[in-house]
Specification:
Structural class: alpha+beta
Strand content: 15-25%
Strand order of the largest sheet: 15-12-14-13-17-18-16
Largest sheet: 7 strands, antiparallel
Radius of gyration: 24 Å
Distance between the termini: 27 Å
Shape: globular
Helix content: 25-40%
Length: about 550
């Protein structure tokens, strides 16, 4: 997008006017609104800015925030929330935040596990730019592509693709309320990852706003920045406006199943076997395992047990699936009666946990089915975990009220893509990924107890997961791994968590950050740091 010289003259004029007003009692939000109107090509309604004093503030703040831990009264709140209606509004918000020295957080879907899109723990005051009104989706079936705005949910994207074709899809998240702006920046995995890779592996182009307030597409930003935004984590390099994604073929019929095994049914041995085969199965088959304690039944003397749910999607029909399972994983005992043949879009609803017979139109509501107080962590596994170690794991899970583990299989296409193809490095040699989650309902009352429990569980698992580094998934953000400090985004400190998320790609991400955002305008608790200015020119 090109702008006339008049636009830049207006920007300069706005800065002069704002500096002149700095000696008056004009509030920050008033200065921001003045600046927005001077820097946007389209007028900006006053209703797009909501301050803490307004009755709608809490409802807007909470609208897409997923982790209730970060909505507690003790957590910092933004001075105001700006909900832009057009790209030019977003562009103006970046220009004005930079001119006024306002710290900015960007929210597309509110799913950041540590609330970084709507809370700043290291820097106040701050504001939120909420992209929820920018959610257009333009699907081009002939071109096998779609342009999707950052505020759209991945469920909306799936629906709009399926609306035009029952043999096209997109390989991204299982949770349908994820905002695509942040989701794809971390990788974006789903049930088709073993067939087609991640969402980030299937991005053709993007539109972003850089630290200077310029809108750039792939050609304008160059391949280094385009590489960094596809897996390098959100809100470090620019503000994502939209992605151009590549559609992938899906069969008219897919098959889903969920098979439950508890300890009394040999769950430990079956899970040990799953670890040996999950990454080697037919790449059309994705079987994840959901592990959690189950309450005892009605019979007297029954103990609480562990359940393992084998939750799967197969890109094909039941007959072929049963052949694959009989050949590769007969231990699960899958039968025809366990299998449900359906369409790809309805498999999205199934894996997303919606009740059977839920119409696909529910995806257009973009509402989350998961809002809790929670803490999560992640691991990647390179060798099967022994049955003895699993038994120790069960003891720890049974000691907590509402723990959850999800094991996601790798292999297939994930093993064929180079670790450096995108910043997402968890590729060949990874058997599966573990997500640990602990949820609770009583706010801050027993938070310390639950946080201590998951940290101890994480320590217990250390011998059985990846090492040097102990890898982690950036979209399962975990501040236990380390945090930047205000005005001190240290390369050395950031390397501790950066190498866990990105392995050797972290160093390239730092070089890209240094080149495109040397002043660290886009920053948060775990943003990529720029190199100190004296090192800039001889290292980039």
């Amino acid at each position: 997008m090109k702008f006339s010289s008049n636009f830049y003259i207006l920007s300069l004029l706005s800065l002069i006017l704002l500096l002149a007003s700095s000696t008056t009692s004009i509030s920050v939000e008033d200065k921001f609104i003045q600046c927005l109107n001077l820097n946007s090509e389209l007028s900006i309604p006053l209703s797009t800015v909501c301050t803490q004093n307004e009755s709608t503030f809490s409802s807007i703040l909470e609208s897409s925030a997923q982790n209730l831990r970060y909505l507690e009264p003790s957590k910092p709140k933004p001075d105001f929330i700006f909900t832009p209606l057009y790209e030019s509004h977003v562009q103006a918000s970046v220009i004005c935040a930079k001119q006024l020295g306002i710290h900015l957080r960007v929210r597309s879907g509110g799913h950041d596990y540590e609330g970084l899109s709507y809370v700043s723990q290291i820097e106040t005051p701050f504001i939120i730019v909420d992209l929820s009104k920018l959610r257009s989706i333009n699907v081009d079936i002939v071109g096998n592509s779609a342009w999707i705005q950052a505020g759209a949910t991945i469920g909306e994207v799936y629906y709009r693709i399926a609306e035009k074709s029952n043999i096209h899809g997109f390989p991204a998240g299982l949770c349908t309320s994820l905002g695509v702006g942040g989701h794809i920046t971390g990788g974006a995995y789903g049930t088709m990852m073993r067939k087609y890779g991640l969402g980030a592996d299937n991005v053709l182009d993007a539109r972003i706003i850089d630290a200077n307030g310029k809108i750039l597409d792939r050609a304008a930003m160059g391949e280094d920045l385009f590489w960094a935004i596809r897996g390098g984590g959100g809100a470090s390099f620019g503000l994502i406006l939209s992605w151009k994604i590549k559609l992938v073929p899906v069969p008219e019929t897919v098959t889903v199943f969920t098979v439950m095994k508890n300890l009394e049914q040999g769950a430990t041995k079956i899970l040990y076997r799953w670890q040996q085969v999950a990454d080697k199965l037919d790449e059309n088959l994705f079987i994840r395992v959901i592990i959690q304690p189950a309450s005892p039944g009605q019979k007297t003397g029954q103990k609480r047990t562990i359940t393992t749910l084998y939750n799967a999607v197969f890109l094909g029909g039941t007959e072929k699936l049963l052949q694959v399972m009989q050949q590769s994983f007969p231990e699960l005992g899958l039968t025809k009666i366990d299998c449900i043949e359906t369409s790809w879009i309805k498999s999205v609803l199934y894996i997303g946990g919606f009740p059977s017979n839920t119409p696909p139109e529910i995806l257009l509501k973009g509402k989350s089915t998961f809002k809790n107080y929670f803490k999560a962590k992640s691991d990647f596994v390179k060798e099967p975990i022994s049955e003895t170690a699993l038994e120790g794991l069960w003891k720890r899970l049974l000691a907590e009220d509402s723990p959850l583990m999800i094991w996601n299989p790798y292999g297939g296409q994930m093993s064929k893509i180079s670790e450096s193809e995108t910043p997402f490095p968890h590729r060949n040699g990874t058997l599966f990924k573990i997500q640990y989650v602990i949820t609770w309902h009583d706010g801050e009352k027993n938070e310390t107890k639950h946080m201590d429990w998951i940290r101890k569980l994480y320590n217990y698992m250390a011998p059985y997961v990846s090492k040097f580094p102990r890898e982690a998934y950036v979209n399962y953000r975990d501040l236990d791994l380390g945090m930047n400090k205000k005005d001190n985004t240290s390369f050395v400190q950031a390397s501790v968590w950066g190498v866990k998320y990105f392995k050797d790609n972290f160093n390239r991400l730092v070089r890209v950050k240094t080149k495109f955002d040397p002043d660290n305008f886009f920053r948060h608790e775990q943003s990529i740091p720029p190199l100190p200015s004296e090192d800039h020119y001889n290292k980039v």
